[in-house]
Automatic annotation (TrEMBL):
PANTHER family: FERROCHELATASE (PTHR11108), FERROCHELATASE, MITOCHONDRIAL (PTHR11108:SF1). Catalyzes the ferrous insertion into protoporphyrin IX. Its main location: plastid. This is Ferrochelatase. It comes from Olea europaea subsp. europaea.
Amino acid sequence: MNQSMNIRIQSPSPSLLLPPAKCSSRWRCPCLRVQLETCASSNLSKMSLISRGSSAWCKIQPMFNESLTKMYSSQIEVLVTSRAQEVSDTPAVGDDKIGVLLLNLGGPETLEDVQPFLFNLFADPDIIRLPRLFRFLQKPLAKFISVARAPKSKEGYASIGGGSPLRQITDAQAEELRKALSEKNVLAKVYVGMRYWHPFTEEAIEQIKLDRITKLVVLPLYPQFSISTSGSSLRLLESIFREDEYLVNMQHTVIPSWYQREGYIKAMADLIEKQLTNFDRPKEVMIFFSAHGVPVAYVEEAGDPYKAEMEECVDLIMEELEKRRINNAYTLAYQSRVGPVEWLKPYTDDTIIELGRKGVKSLLAVPISFVSEHIETLEEIDVEYKELALKSGIEKWGRVPALCCEPTFISDLADAVIESLPYVGAMAVSNLEARQSLVPLGSVEELLAAYDSQRRELPPLVTVWEWGWTKSAETWNGRAAMLAVLVLLVLEVTTGEGFLHQWGLLPLFR
């Protein structure tokens, strides 16, 4: 995952509409259903800023936060669909043209897209961290891994309709957000920028420049901040902004996380409450929050706030449910781990098995870190984890759909954007001269951890060697195997011969 560092992000609290596509019923996403509806206006939430250190949280009201003077200095905005809005329609407030940039991961839209999508993913140095000496092997290694993993990944995408619905959903979210802002008397263009697939962030930036946007709100569609998701996207934006005079002069602000917003919490509670009614005995259902995992080292050594934000998010949702007299048992686990390293625990699959052993008969899965349906909800949760649950003795299984275009959620995102507008450019101090980082830097007490000014690499995922048949020993065996692979790749590159060239995987090095 991320090759990043101890950065700290100051946190103000926290898509486009495509024609209805072939949408598998398994998506269970309300986005396309509400394309022609108007998002309900709501003043549900007050925006709070959260700064988190290693030991304490500090909640601050945004309008009076003096610590925001170090706020973000570059700017961005993303590509809504070119057909959705004309440049002449670029909204303005006074002399300013307002834009909102939604950031997301992206996903292959067809089976032919799977391998190049995986290549883009693994070519990111924040995903696969090679030693500095071997950085030149980043793309050859990404090519090798993407080709090797593509067949298995294609099976997964084929099972959910032949591609990811993420772009369609994000585009729909962008359009609904634009409508909600308009209803709240804020005219803005909303752009979508994906990290690893179309529309790429770079494409969105070009559209923003063409539209001559002057004020931009950057809104990652990840409720909780992590250096491996929002952090990676912001780091890319930083590199784009640094060398572009137009972007350097464009005022902007970033909403790094928004999991604590009242509207988001209420929307999640609404979905859970609704799904509980599908069980014969709703009060006996275990509410099972499943979040995407990150390596333990990101949290313990790099200061990633993801785990703390996730736990607080779950607590806030359960507090909201308790207000509605819903007092079900609940638990939180982490899914989607890869590689021979320690990830955040407990693991989703292990937890499901354990709950079955303890006699839990009804389980309601809640994909807590996702706001859109994609491969990890539609295939990993709906297929793999459901099968595991039934085999483990759990008799009744349910799953809360992703928020997608849920009106309360979209309306609250609009409120977050509106609340952030007074900060757009307000904290930028001589951007052109200072060339400050997009991600602000500061002390542990003031900023959320992600990178530091030195851009040091993340700490090793396993740091202690232990003799014997241990997890550490197995990890070091894995490292030895990786080193052997790197040596073979070096030989391939230097000699121009080998099985990768024979297979045509490294044609550039012939």
